[in-house]
Amino acid sequence: MAKSEDQLRDEILGLVAQYQKVKFAAQEFIPGKSPVRYAGRVFDDKEIVALVDSSLDFWLTAGRYTDEFEAELAYFMDLEYAMLVNSGSSANLLALTALTSPLLGEKRLLPGDEIISVAAGFPTTVNPILQNGLVPVFVDVDLGTYNANLEQISKAIGQKTKGIFLAHTLGNPYDVEALAELAEKHDLFLIEDCCDALGSEYKGRKVGTFGHVTTFSFYPAHHITLGEGGAVGTNDDTIAKAIKSLRDWGRDCYCSSGENNTCGKRFTGQYGTLPVGYDHKYVYSHIGYNLKATDMQAAIGVEQLKKLPDFCQARKENFKIWSAGFEKWQDFFILPEALPGSDPAWFAFPITLRENAGFSRTELTDYLSSKLIETRNLFAGNILRQPGYLDIDHRVVGDLTNTDYIMNHTFFLGTYPGLDIKQINYVLEEIQKFLDSKS
Ligand SMILES: Cc1ncc(COP(=O)(O)O)c(C=O)c1O
User: How high is the pLDDT of residue 390?
Assistant: First the structure.
């Protein structure tokens, strides 16, 4: 008798689970022979089974897994809306572009308005400011926290300031409660880039719930991965509407994929100067993009989200092990610092060489690389010194002394859940050997 669709699916998924266990069997760590990565995917058979399950649906675009992922992410974050997109960079672009929407009336951002940010960070936190014809205003950051402080941000607020767009650097929360109050006092939008901070908390509340809009990245280096992916979160109905429209070609229609006439006036409305009854599916109320993700990505995400609390815990524990190991080397290094009241799910363990360390960052990271230990710089360093940004319209308030210092002296090691005590101890031993060779 021919097998039913359900039987076949069960067999396939059973085999996929077996395959995953063989193909991705845990490898023993051999010091000096196995790489120590700064980040990476952590998954088991559940993710691959979900991925194949979704591909067997062959729905491909946003579908049941997307609905589930968005609902679960919103629940985890305690946000009204979580909207899946194809990357964290797209999430940032949508978060800021949504604030230029005519739906916001007088409050909307207009070309020439200023947005406060930092130059020590990832480029696509700054890019949406430029892409929308807005002007970034850069302030310096503190060494140790790698975030701007409230005083620096306050000084940068001027007549044209309309928003603050800051990442919680490497998962380390800035004083987001006070910043949200400052933003409210000056009638500014606050956008929290939580691409590196999913699960970090400030005063018992998740970062990403204080500002008007928040963003996440699900690229493999991040707290959970969908391969490529990101999300935008908000509690504001109007902002959510603008984000969905801008994500989905700029359309006015908000039917889910495969649905029709959710609004009940598909052929009776009148929009712009279009004729009455022009099909609402083809009405565009924004100059939009297509930044959607697929249901296969969402399927992986549904399983990754279930692991997120454990992932965050593992990151915190790895951070503690690094901190204990580095404590004795404070004459050489500035160690990372979290603000009182914060509970970071650290993206990484950032380290800054002191001026009198007696060696350069490159000497150390090159040595570590020769021992198969990965390190990374703090992204763009000082973005204003990057070739693509030399001529951008911007303002700097104060100076960027620490930003430049970070560009020259800071690097980070991983905290991701794929690291364990054996690997961390190996790295610490190698750093000790390096320091001994310098003394
Ligand atoms: C702070 C920050 N924002 C945005 C992004 C962009 O995310 P994606 O790589 O998913 O585009 C990154 C990437 O790592 C990031 O670190």
Answer: 98
Confidence of residue 262 (pLDDT cuts 50, 70, 90): confident
Question: 155-187: buried (b, 16+ CB within 10 Å) or exposed (e) per residue?
Answer: ebbeeebbbbbbbbbbbbbbbbeebbebbeeee
Residues 172 and 283 grouped into a single domain: yes
Q: Determine the pLDDT at residue 261.
A: 87
Q: Say yes or no: CB of residue 89 within 6 Å of ligand 1.
A: yes
Residue-wise pLDDT for 161-186, tens only, equals 999 999 999 999 999 999 999 999 99
Contact 79/214 with Cβ under 8 angstroms? yes
193 lines ligand 1 (CB under 6 A): yes
- The answer to whether residue 11 is domain-embedded is no
Q: Distance, CA 219 to ligand 1 centroid (Å)?
A: 8
Shared domain for 287 and 183, answered yes or no, is yes
* Active site annotation includes 409: no
pTM for the full predicted model: 0.98
The reply to whether 161 and 218 lie within a common domain is yes
State both tokens at 222.
């991040």
For ligand 1, what atom is nearest to the CA of residue 218?
10
In this structure, the residue with its CA closest to atom 7 of ligand 1 is 88
